[in-house]
């Protein structure tokens, strides 16, 4: 805990953060397939407030002012593409992504909890029209 200016409040939050990310890729040029899968995870916990603030005893009370922000985020995305080996200017692909963001927090006596989910999908077809 740091309070360099002696005002009784933390100068920077106490925090714990975990980030995990992995990506897999598969390519088969002979058959024309390309694919990617990405996974991400974030867990971020922060505590701020007075030096004597103890969340076990003081959360949402007027004993000591404090705040906590606990965030969890999950993300998954994928791409799948096919390029016709016999007609290389002709291809089709699909992209998808999903994210989930959950945050539980309070600032003094005020709570602020959110949940947000997002889904994205896209399909692409590419070819030559006529004889261009």
UniProtKB/TrEMBL annotation:
It comes from the Bacteria. Keywords: Receptor. This is TonB-dependent receptor.
């Amino acid at each position: 805990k740091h309070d360099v200016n002696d005002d009784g409040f933390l100068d920077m939050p106490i925090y714990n953060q975990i980030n995990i990310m992995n990506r897999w890729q598969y390519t088969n040029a002979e058959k024309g397939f390309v694919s990617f899968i990405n996974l991400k995870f974030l867990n971020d916990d922060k505590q701020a407030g007075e030096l004597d603030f103890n969340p076990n005893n003081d959360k949402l009370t007027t004993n000591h002012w404090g705040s906590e922000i606990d965030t969890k985020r999950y993300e998954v995305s994928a791409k799948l593409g096919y390029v016709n080996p016999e007609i290389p200017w002709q291809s089709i692909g699909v992209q998808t992504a999903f994210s989930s963001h959950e945050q539980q927090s309070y600032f003094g006596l005020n709570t602020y909890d959110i949940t947000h989910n997002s889904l994205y999908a896209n399909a692409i077809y590419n070819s030559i029209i006529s004889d261009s």
